[in-house]
What does this fold into?
Amino acid sequence: MPRTPDKPAAPPADRSAKKRPHYHGHRQRLRERFTATGGDGMPDYELLELLLAQAIPRRDVKPLAKDLLERFGSFAGVITADADRLTAVRGMGDSSATALKVVQAAAVRLLQQQVLGRDVIDSWDRLVDYCTAAMAHEPVEQLRLLFLDRKNVLIADEVQQQGTVDHTPLYTREVVKRALELSASALIVVHNHPSGDATPSQGDIRMTKELREALEKIGIALHDHLVIGRHGHESFRAKGLL
It folds into this structure.
């Protein structure tokens, strides 16, 4: 006689009473702590949990947050990591990577708006903070031009070139042309060193000298050239190179 299949268990009388995943209560407590403190005192992995939970609402993301911190070394390292490197981590997808990159973009935008339309000489520390946030973790060299008016107010912030891991070209003629188009009175050049070491190279020094001489001929000042690294920055003017 054939065996009778096991009778399936009866469904619970009230499906809404089904036990919630254990991490729901933990996540709610995290949200309450964040609301109460603004995140002050919360460890990095908990802030990452809250961010990841927006993109991955139905999974415990605490282990993933800790994996990301171990892989990239710090909260800043996670947020600034390339999207391809983020999605290479098990458990990360396009949505969760995008959520983290939005945080980076928002931080850079906030710092940028603190210097646009202001006297950058009087807001020098803010300017350096903005350039560091925008460029320090870029995987290739990037050349940024900051155009100023007669009162040293920042009127335009533009990326002129993307280069390689150790070189980015500066086209003096294009810089001069753009400065004239904007009626700029002064200029600050900023570029990053992906190696992390902000020490100016001989090529940086030579390029800066050529640009300064070209700008002087049309009455535009080169206020400074900043080199941004992951562990600090160097100012040509402070080093006596301008």
Q: What stands out?
A: The chain has a mean pLDDT of 87. Residues 21-110 form one domain. The CA atoms of residues 117 and 154 lie 5 Å apart.
